[in-house]
Give the backbone structure.
Amino acid sequence: MRGFQFSPWNLLLIIPLLVLITSLFNTDGPRLFGMPFFYWFQFVFVAVGVLCTGIVYAMTRDKPTSDRPDRLSVDELDEGDVK
């Protein structure tokens, strides 16, 4: 049995899970620039979501998407090649 293994992709789950728990931020105060807490906190979630997506991208951009080598040749990828 393998224990918990952290993957950068797990960061993408933070925002949707927190947004579902509306009782944490379903309130009028404190207000920021006249906006109720609920609204400006949603804007914060947008910024945190962009930050999480950027972190995941930076952590995974150099990793291969597959462990197997690509078996297609250049000729097979040519659209004009009809067999």
About this structure: The radius of gyration is 22 Å.
